[in-house]
């Protein structure tokens, strides 16, 4: 059996690409210098894969910002507003990614969305009627040749035609159907070019196929690939799926002339059944995704080999692979100097997964049952040290139905809180974090390295908090925040303070563009050691008469942005985390914090891709977990929650059932579509749809914000509307933050003058 990788991480093991790109943004290096760094990263990781013996090594999995954006540029999807800037090709590319505000003009970025059920975000390309969809770029060919010059034959990876068309945003009158011929033409030309270059395989990524598909979807898929495959040359085509199984279209896939089909045996609950019950055609390769590309636990060889055995029995020509791109896991354990062996022995990051593929390949070729490497691996799954805590398990077992219900019910609380807080109409607030400027990060780094004392570390953060409170008062915001200066990340920060967690030094995973996160690892049962945020929040509250929001991350988000355990259910882990956060909520309340925001930024992210699983597999425990966190507070205490993405139109009732008092969410990049759903569903929770996009350095004008608010008022009753940015301000600079918030407050005042 041979081995294959779907895609590799790309920011660099030490985030070299991130640092180079940000230097380019600051005009500290040229486009050529940025490309040099990119080339070095590609070279290094192609060689790592080659040296590990991977048979199918991907190319064009690399990106300076995002693969969907690359695919848009490849196919000439560059809206006129970006072309009109008249800037260089790379600045046009980054204008689409981040927006542009400067001498050449002022344009917003493409929307950004979660890549299926991951914490990676892709750019949503916009196509309008004037755009001619055609093969226009050369990136996949250039990178293929670059690898070839290094002596490495790669398998170029391109977002597949179906997934690409499904994820585009159509802003003109045309729909996906109208582009089928053009897409077939463009992909056929792409294949012809690869054929001429000597490529043996091309991988088309089609994760969209793991959704529930309609008859129209399937017919679009068939139409696209009948067309593309009809122009096939010698280059072989791999249809690669991931993030689930393809139960709605397995037979349709097999009926088409693909040379290889990639299926996910980790997240695809029905994959094995689909293959064993329906068979797999002779003469084609099955790329079996058996090594988890999303989590960091070592592969259980015995389990995997038994799947491979079943495929062998059916005489299926199998390639052993990862379940999805390794983009979602850190680079390597080699850079972890602090984690003891007793823990690391259980983990495999991207590079270690290459070793796993090699071991599985070796084992699958021999009588594996007696192999030493197998015994060693099996021992890891017998028991793990330090992971069980009887007290935590007992507390979880004692939770009863009443613990999920907050009383009095919403409308009574709403009236009590209006009386209690006396906030003006359309209250203004922010989402929590203020700019994580270089001095803030340097303070944290110095403390971590032992260069300053704890007292110095705290004193610095207190100064920042005081300045932040003063700034918010000057700007005239109504509900203040302390700025989150003490947090490296909204999840890692809590992970570091909870029993049951481990963390890495360099376990970076790309979240979007140049932004990375370092997901903590849930090793064992989780509990709170001591209050985690109370001192920061009470200090901030002591500086102002205005309400200071306590700021916590919710249990579902903590779970979703950590690497979860696989030995207990996600539900059980979440319950443990919920109890820890509940304790923190009650401590904040007891210490005079009257408004507490519990961020559930990632709640939508792990909603199962198939509708039939939404409640049974997820919402039935995720929503109660949030309720468990806040059900113990008094009527006067106002509970806020925040979600980064507004794609919850379809689960709007579940969101309302979280029973928060106020929810703030991203809306500005998605044309406020969510507003209709709020109105139609008679959403009870007070809402603050974000009035400007914080992912871009643009400063929104008062008029722009006011017009967003006017639109909101058409759908949301005035007594329920809050005014706030999209998300936290940690990635922004100080000057643009002040200017944007001043405009936000000015727009809210105009709204009050006109409506009250
Ligand atoms: C809200 N979002 C979040 C998501 N997931 C999370 N886990 N957290 C989130 O907040 N998903 C959806 C969105 C994604 N949005 C973002 C936004 C911004 C970032 C981001 O800015 N990430 C930072 C890294 C943040 C961090 O952990 N910083 C640490 C470490 C700082 C550092 O780089 N230290 C250096 C040493 C420096 C020195 O001076 O010596 C090092 O460790 O090498 C900290 O501040 O302490 C980023 O830079 O990408 C992410 C997601
Ligand atoms: N409170 C967090 C939420 C981000 S989703 C912040 O402001 O950064
Ligand atoms: Zn957010």
UniProtKB/TrEMBL annotation:
Residues 426-749 form the Cobalamin-independent methionine synthase MetE C-terminal/archaeal domain. Its cofactor is Zn(2+). Its EC number is 2.1.1.14. GO terms for molecular function: 5-methyltetrahydropteroyltriglutamate-homocysteine S-methyltransferase activity; zinc ion binding. It is an enzyme of class 2 (transferase). Gene3D superfamilies: 3.20.20.210. Pfam families: Meth_synt_1, Meth_synt_2. InterPro entries: Cbl-indep_Met_Synth_N (IPR013215), Cobalamin-indep_Met_synthase (IPR006276), Met_Synth_C/arc (IPR002629), UROD/MetE-like_sf (IPR038071). HAMAP family: Meth_synth (MF_00172). Belongs to the vitamin-B12 independent methionine synthase family. Catalyzes the transfer of a methyl group from 5-methyltetrahydrofolate to homocysteine resulting in methionine formation. This is 5-methyltetrahydropteroyltriglutamate--homocysteine methyltransferase.
